[in-house]
Structure formats: structure tokens, C-alpha cells
Amino acid sequence: MSFKGQTAWITGASSGIGAALAKALAGQGARLVLSGRKVDALEAVAADCGGDCLILPFETTDIAALAPAVERAWAWSGGIDLLVNNAGISQRSLAVETAYPVYQRIIDVDLLAPIALTQEILPRMAARKSGRLAYISSIAGKVGVPMRTAYCAAKFGLAGYADALRAETSVLGLTVHTIYPGSIRTDVSRNALTADGSARGASDSVIDNGIDPQVAAKWMLDAMLADEREIIVAEGGEARMGELRRTPDALFDQVAAMMASGYAEKMKSEAQK
After folding, report:
1. pTM
2. pLDDT tens, position by position, 239-262
3. Which of 103, 151, 161, 180 is catalytic?
């Protein structure tokens, strides 16, 4: 199984996990829509992929830009088979020291932006009754981690949105994946926001010694092709933390069964009484 012949749209594709996923998908023969803020970096990723790529730069929090972006991405190759909501920003600051605008920025980027993009593309996928939606959360979206209160809030929220969306769309033929990376060797900690909203500018040793992005990308794609709903991409203590908080498949099945039995229609009917 592979993504050969399918079209994948990746946000935050200019570096790190996004760039690694782009290269891995290109290697499987997928067409790519690459989004991010830096055109030159996206062009470099496209050149590295050497495949069929559409460079579609935009700021994920620019809500007005989303509808035309979805229109262009969808029209480019006749639809999107996989949307990977990867763009994000982390945090390294204690709550007691952190200015409120830092919370607003991180939640805007890590939670509200992927929701907004999904809401634009969801009706198209639902009408077609096919498609995959993937959300890059974090082990910090399973376990509250010090110095990441804003980041944890956003990533926990993203997982909740994805879980509820999975149940709703299970009757529409869509597949929703929530991905929980641990330490991946990227610039995530270097770009993380500090208490005043400035970039940290330094990496963590655990990140520097983390999983190679290409290894992580293959791990994620293999799990998606196996239709895994929760995908924990971590090693050592981080993997154990993620597994301790893993949602049982039986619970996902139970909630999906609620939809299949007409739960939404019943709720709507009760509201009209």
C-alpha cells in the first residue's frame, strides 16, 4: 500500500516534519501541495522532492486566505486525498511568567488554524465521501508537560477536535488520524515562544538527539496506510507516556457506532421539539 497517485496537502511543509513527510510522500509517487510562509524554503523542498508539486504559500492564521487556498489546491489535481495539518509553534516558558498574548498566538496557530482549514475543505471531502485528515498533535497533547501550558492546551484541544470529527465523519467514508510525535530532530524548540513571545533561539538536547525526521515520516505514513487512528511516534519515556494515555480502539468504535445509529439525527430532532 502507498499514496501513489494521490494528492497530499501539507501545511508547515518548509522544514522539519512537514518537509520530511513531503519527501516521503513524493517517494511513494504522491502529488504534493506544499504550504507555509516562506516561498524560498517551499521551493527548496519541492526541488528536493523532485515530483509533482504545487507551492501554495499562506499564513495559516489568515482566515480570509483559506477559502481561495482550498479552491486552488482542490482544483489543481481534482481533489485532495490527504490533508496534513502540521504547521505549528511550541513554547518554553513557565505559566506564571508568560504574557497572555503568547497563549493567543500559540492557540491561534496550533488549534484554531487547523480547525479553520479543515472546516473549509471538509464539505468537499464529505461530498466525495473519501479523504484523510491528519493532525500533528504531540506527546504534550497527551500529557501536560512543564513550560508548555499554551502548547499543551492547543494540542490537547486539537486531539479533542480530531476525535469528535472522526466520529462524525465515520459515516461519510473519511479517515481521521491524530499523530503524537515525541522528540523529533527539528527546530521546534529553537522556534518556540518564550514568556514575552520572542523566539527561544536555542534547541533542547532531547530534540537534538531525537528521532530522525525521515524515520518519523515513514512511521507516520505507514501507520496512516494501516488506518491507525492514534499514531504515537516516540521512543523511550515519551513513548511510555503516550501509551499510558492511548485511547482504546474499542472506545473509538463505540463513539462511531453512536453516529451510525443516528445520534446526530436524534439530537437535531430533539432540538426542534
Report:
1. 0.96
2. 999 999 999 999 999 999 999 999
3. 151
